[in-house]
Amino acid sequence: MHRSYAAIRRAGAITPATPAGYRFRRMGEGVSIAFPPGAIFGEPWIEIGDHTLIGERVSLSCGMGPGLDLGPDSILRIGGSCSIGRGSHIVAHQSIDIGDHVFTGPYVYITDQNHVYDDPDIPIGRQWPRNSPVSIGSGSWLGTGAVILPGTTLGRQCVVAGGAVVRGEFPDHSVVAGVPARRVRGYSPELGWHSPVPLDV
């Protein structure tokens, strides 16, 4: 049974050489999306760089649903040599850009769209959502269960603590933690890793 399931997983993986891989705008050399995948649609607007590994049950989506025309440009870009942990969801509508060598723990959620509640008389789920681009710098690590909300920009080599809920802009070499997430450590050549002064929080 275990040998059979291992063979099924190998056969079910999505790679550049499989028919499902051809649907992506770009799927680089050595990319593998593990079987079973999560919800995957909007592949013509998804780019994945070389040697990136995507765990099982990871959802990658562009737009509200399959079959939409989302325009001429890529919407979701994942760099090279990344590792996306199992059960994670990356939900793009306008722009999510993930740099090279980004690693995530399992069950990370990244989105560039959120519901709004501007009109108090209309159910929130029926109000038109609002988009804001997301950028995650190369070399960053996102811990288990982290949530990256619309409008977030993480610089290079940032660490996001497990369970953090992140919105806002954080410079290179930031450690962010909490709900809502705050910058709890930073790096400079003069001080090394240090806690930021209060004005930097």
UniProtKB/TrEMBL annotation:
Gene3D superfamilies: Hexapeptide repeat proteins. InterPro entries: Hexapep, Hexapeptide_acetyltransf, Trimer_LpxA-like_sf. CDD domains: LbH_MAT_like. Keywords: Transferase. It comes from the Bacteria. One of its GO terms (cellular component) is cytosol. GO terms for molecular function: O-acyltransferase activity. This is Transferase hexapeptide (Six repeat-containing protein). The lineage of its organism: Bacteria, Bacillati, Actinomycetota, Actinomycetes, Streptosporangiales.
